[in-house]
Write a structure and sequence with these properties.
Blueprint (H helix, E strand, L loop, with lengths): L1 H12 L4 H5 L15 H16 L6 E5 L6 E12 L2 E12 L2 E12 L2 E4 L6
Antiparallel strand pairs: 1-2, 2-3, 3-4, 4-5
Helix pairs in contact: 1-3
Length: 122
């Protein structure tokens, strides 16, 4: 479950780089995103972009696809700086076909792109 969320966030952060996005697709197995259709993924990515680019701390941005019934939300828990980069801790929750995920991840803006950063690298 943790792996799929990390992968989904990596996909989100690599939206501007299709080649980088492809390397994470295989990690989506076993989690809710395995059931996402194109509309679900588009809605999830739109919310992720808004959370990373615009959302204030502790504001939850939700998405829901009425056709599939899949849904989720992203909350910026805090902002911080690491090694000279602006960073955010996000809480990401998704549900599809009875599978649920609830994860926290650190992302930093490196060279203009949001990247997942392991706690050991902060």
């Amino acid at each position: 479950m943790r792996l799929w969320i990390a992968a989904a966030l990596a996909v989100t952060c690599a939206v501007a780089a299709p080649a980088a996005r492809a390397q994470f697709v295989s990690l989506l197995k076993g989690g809710p995103a395995e059931y996402f259709d194109d509309a679900d993924m588009r809605m999830f990515l739109d919310v992720a972009r808004k959370a990373l680019d615009d959302a204030p701390d502790n504001e939850t941005l939700a998405w829901q696809n009425p056709k599939s019934g899949h849904h989720g939300d992203i909350t910026v828990l805090k902002r911080f700086e690491s090694k000279g980069h602006a960073c955010k801790e996000l809480r990401v929750r998704n549900e599809a076909q009875g599978r649920k995920s609830d994860m926290r991840h650190n992302l930093c803006n490196i060279d203009g792109k949001w990247r997942l950063v392991a706690k050991s690298k902060l």
